[in-house]
Amino acid sequence: MNQKARIAALAGMAGLTAGAAAQDSLGSINDAYSTSEQRTAYVLDLVGTTTSWGNVFGVGPLVKSPTVPGSAFANNLISANAVSQTFLNNVAYPSALYALWENELAGGTGPGEINTLIAPPGATGTQFAATFADFGPLGTRYNGVTTAVVNFDPADPARLYITRVQAAVNGPDPSTDNSQFGIGGVDASGNTFMRSDAFGTNGGANALTGNNYFRIDALGRNPAQTNHISAILGDRDLSATAHILQNSPISHTTPTGIPSERDSSRVLIGASFAPVAGAPGEYVRGSSFPPVANTDHINGTGVTDTRGGVTYSPARFIPNSLGTAAILARGPADGNEVFSVAMWDLGPGGSVLRNAVMTRSASAVDPVDPYTPVLPIGRLDGYRSQVAARGGNAPVAIGYNPYGNFGVVAAVSYDSPSVFADDPLNTLLVGHFDPADPTGTVSWVVAGWFDGLQGKPIKDGPGGNVIGRLTTLDVVTGGAPRGPSISAPAIDAAGNIWFVGAAEQFKTDAQGNPFIDNDSILIRAVWDPATGGYELERILEPGFTRTGLNSGVEYTLTFLGIADSNSIDSSTLFSNGVNQSAWNNVNPTDYTNQDPRTVGGVVLAVQLTYLSAVNYQCLLYVGNITPADATGCQADLSGSSDPNDPAYGVPDGVVDAADFFYYLDQFVAGNIAVADLTGSSDPNDPAYGIPDGVIDAADFFYFLDIFVAGCP
Questions:
Q1: Does the pLDDT of residue 623 top 50, yes or no?
Q2: Based on the domain organization, do 637 and 531 belong to the same domain?
Q3: For the sheet containing 305-313, what is the strand order?
Q4: What is the pLDDT of residues 520-534, one digit of tens each?
């Protein structure tokens, strides 16, 4: 059945007709100030792409940025962006009807050739969210925030049901601005965490003052009004907007938050600069004004100060944890440099349950692709210039590798001693630590590098052929911008590392002539259990061309950035750009660590060129499209019951006594990352199979259920 016939058939079955909120056509994008376009709902069907390792992901423009009246451009430039770090299962679709269209691609509003409203496929589905800030063109004052709440049926993951909300604007029209925005983070319910100030604004008495944190409930927004963030309370959508930090004279970095399903008070977490000269920056958290601000996150660690934003991970390393936070830090032996990462386990209200500091090793090596560095591994960076105020969030990542049962921390070093924010010589460092004792020895490895002559290989499979190498950004750009060459890192549910990196790829043209293609590309560094290192897989690159399944219109990915004119670009990938939960909350160890289901999804600010002529700025989504009923084996945890055996804790494809005794060991030891499996032992309870942060009898009986079920 062709696309038009399929849409018509669905419309007929639903008994629906085309509505006024039809989705997207060339040159027709939502107006951020229009009260008829504050909330729209539409369908996006993902197209497939095959990685250099042969893995298949779905790709699609999740949402396009708005436009402002009178702009000469199709739509606005996207700045910092983020995706939720968790999923919600079995929740109601937030919109009653979604526009299914056939004209141009998703993410805006406008008349369509066929634009039929359809109902969701069921009463409930799985949900996540994404957000971004955007800027109007030169000559305008517009700055806004858009949040998209995304739902899907796990049996049909390639179809996304998107509710797009204009979360905030900074003025009554494009000529006036009363605030400026930085992102930030978002949870799966659509709670959007952002920073705001009035730097460079022209709003006069109506402008905000000082540093401010806001939490906006995107789904709670009143679509009949704009949410104009100014000093005038009546300008705001107050029922959906919490002003958590108000008019502080102290500089603050962009915040994120603890997911509302883990703390119903919807806690915002962020960081400040030093409140007084010589003091360290503070950890700021709260769900209402005034927030708590102190140094609990670094007390007793020897850390003298912190840099950049706070990152949030859903990884739970101790009982009753709500997740884990981390920030770049000056450790006890770092002097005036940033060589360390401070981490802490989160309790209710964002409280600190435990903390630790991890200092990077200057002698870390790549155990997979050995190299000889020209320069010593330098300071940890990615936080300078506009990043503190605008985002992204954050330059450091923390997570968990369930295949090796170790914590993972990742950051990028800038290695030139005399070049700072735009240093093109970078090293991607990854630390492996014991979740039960993060103060212990950290094993550092190098997952990305350039040694002055060549960079780490990109391969066509594990242990495969070299199809390209990392390089420096100036090779891609011709000199400007010159760096950095690696974005901030992000971690998935398998403990793999995602980043955007400058690369030279070895290709052959249509006549069989070899050539080198220099570009910034999306890369996944996949953990190799044999060596403890990482191998590089190309996920997506400029030149990716597809015909939209909803539109029949061809588009090409034409730009994927890393740097702006003098530093890391706020729009590039940061740690909040990858959903760290496994897709649909499946157990990642049911699959190999390169399976697309081990990542909850990636968002990227990109430029798409339609019909080789018209450029649009989009938040692109990359995620799993394999249905939920594909084979997996949740009870397969270990190939041995002997803790001294290398197979201990490594799945072997068989459910046997070794798995039972391994689970029993982890249950008794209180290893929450492995033993916390469920919130209920009742298969009919919605909490069945969803970890709740507590190890109790329900987890043991749940394991017995899946152990008896065995492998498919």
A1: yes
A2: no
A3: 305-313, 324-330, 340-346, 352-359
A4: 999 999 999 999 999
Q: H/E element holding 96?
A: none
Q: What would the two tokens of residue 165 be? A: 């909300």
Return the bridge partners of 327, or none.
342
**461: number of Cβ within 10 Å:** 15
Quick one: 498 and 443 in the same domain? yes
* Rounded distance between C-alpha atoms, residue 594 and residue 650, angstroms: 15
- Quote the CA–CA distance of 60 and 426 in Å, as a whole number: 30
At 67 the three-state DSSP class reads strand
Q: Which two tokens stand for residue 278?
A: 């010589």
Domain end point (choices 589, 623, 657): 623
**Chain-centre distance of CA 393, in angstroms?**
9
Rounded CA-CA distance 534/349 in Å is 36
Beta carbons of 280 and 296 less than 8 angstroms apart: no
* Pairing outcome for strands 614-623 and 602-610: antiparallel
User: What is the tally of structural domains in the chain?
Assistant: 2
Contacts of 69 (CB under 8 A, 6+ apart): 31, 33, 173, 174
Give rounded-to-5 percent helix, strand, coil for the chain. 10, 40, 50
Per the CB < 8 A criterion, the answer to whether 300 and 332 are in contact is: no
pLDDT tens digits, residue range 368-398?
999 988 899 999 999 999 999 999 999 999 9
Cβ within 8 Å of residue 234, ≥6 positions away = none
pLDDT band at 206 (very low <50, low <70, confident <90, very high): very high
User: Which has the minimum average pLDDT: 426-435, 629-638, 658-667?
Assistant: 629-638
Residues 6+ away with beta carbon under 8 Å from 121: 153, 156, 159
Helices 657-669 and 697-709, axial angle in degrees (round to 10): 170
User: pLDDT tens, 212-259?
Assistant: 999 999 999 999 999 999 999 999 999 999 999 999 999 999 999 999
Distance CA 342, CA 334 (A): 13
Could you give the CA distance from residue 482 to residue 424 in angstroms, rounded to a whole number?
6
SS (H, E, C) 20-67: CCCCCECCECCECCCCCCCEEEEEEECEEEECCCCCEEEEEEEEECCE
Q: Which of 608, 540, 424 is nearest to 24 (CA)?
A: 608
Structure tokens belonging to residue 263: 């703390």
**pLDDT, average across residues 116-131:** 95
Out of 562, 592, 623, a domain closes at: 623
Q: 612 with 638, same domain? A: no
Residues 574 and 681 occupy one common structural domain: no
At 73, is the pLDDT very low, low, confident or very high (cuts 50, 70, 90)?
confident
For 207, the token pair is 């402008």
Task: Note down the domain range covering 226.
Answer: 3-623
Residue 185 has pLDDT above 70, yes or no: yes
- Long-range pairs of 701-704 with CB within 8 A, sequence gap ≥ 24: 702/677, 702/678, 703/635, 703/663, 703/667, 703/677
Asked whether the beta carbons of 641 and 657 are under 8 A apart, the reply is yes
* pTM summary value: 0.87
Task: Tell whether the model's pLDDT for residue 689 goes beyond 70.
Answer: yes
